[in-house]
Design a protein that fits this description.
Layout (H helix, E strand, L loop, with lengths): L20 H4 L2 E7 L6 H12 L3 H14 L1 E8 H13 L3 E5 L1
Antiparallel strand pairs: 1-2, 1-3
Helix pairs in contact: 2-3
């Protein structure tokens, strides 16, 4: 068997693909952490305006966050949560998306 030695070996390239969770619909969790600088009223207002929570939901979540240190405030596909997380962070809240 003869081999053509003039041919360059193929270079292996790893390509990172962004996988969208909208394809799978897997839910993610928007988690807000307690802090020492935002007031209850401000957190409640943010939850109502950004997350479309009722006053009662927003109050309960603010209290849970205060007492337990964090709470899941919304569950949805990551693509839905990302702009909401960004809006909460822009208003000074400590928020992350967990899958």
């Amino acid at each position: 068997m003869l081999y053509d030695l003039s041919v360059e070996p193929m270079e292996e390239v790893l390509v990172e693909e962004e996988i969208s969770d909208t394809d799978t619909g897997d839910p993610a969790h928007l988690v807000v952490y307690n802090d020492d600088h935002n007031t209850f009223d401000w957190v409640i207002e943010c939850f109502i305006e950004i997350l479309d929570h009722t006053l009662e939901q927003a109050e309960q979540l603010a209290l849970i966050i205060h007492l337990k240190g964090k709470a899941t405030v919304k569950t949805a596909p990551k693509s839905v949560l990302k702009p909401k997380k960004d809006a909460l962070v822009d208003r000074g809240l400590s928020a992350v998306i967990e899958e």
